[in-house]
Specification:
Blueprint: E1 2-6, E2 12-22, E3 67-78, E4 83-95, E5 106-117, E6 120-131, E7 144-149
Antiparallel strand pairs: 1-2, 2-3, 3-4, 4-5, 5-6, 6-7
Length: 153
Amino acid sequence: ARAYYNVADGDLVLAARAQAGYVAANDTSAVPSDFLFYSGGGGSVRGFPYQSMGAGPGGDNSVGGRTFLGGSAELRYKVTDQIGIVGFADAGRVGSESFLDTADWQIGAGAGVRYYTGLGPIRLDVGVPVSGPGASLDTIWDAQLYIGIGQAF
């Protein structure tokens, strides 16, 4: 689900996204790993490498999960007709069995720049891990760079 709220005549927009997923299988060993959930990267939690979080112990990504919960918030400000800036925070978790299991949340935050073209915005985002497995003061500078066309969501 996605929601957008214009704060200042379209120059300032608050965008939010919620994600959830569930694999209905009694035995995940029979489910191809491509159909299980992983988290991290530009489509879920920016600041963590792509699919770096799974349902293994401590968030080990060698095992995909049966459940996924995620959420994102962005504050987008259009500086000029062609340039915009963005601040964001993302959170996600992958569970091995149910939405209520004890999987760790991973949280990433960062900022980005948008260049608006006639075909849509070109985006450049930089995210850092804030909390979750693998996030610490030592890894806070392990920034991830994301380049794409269109808004993140």
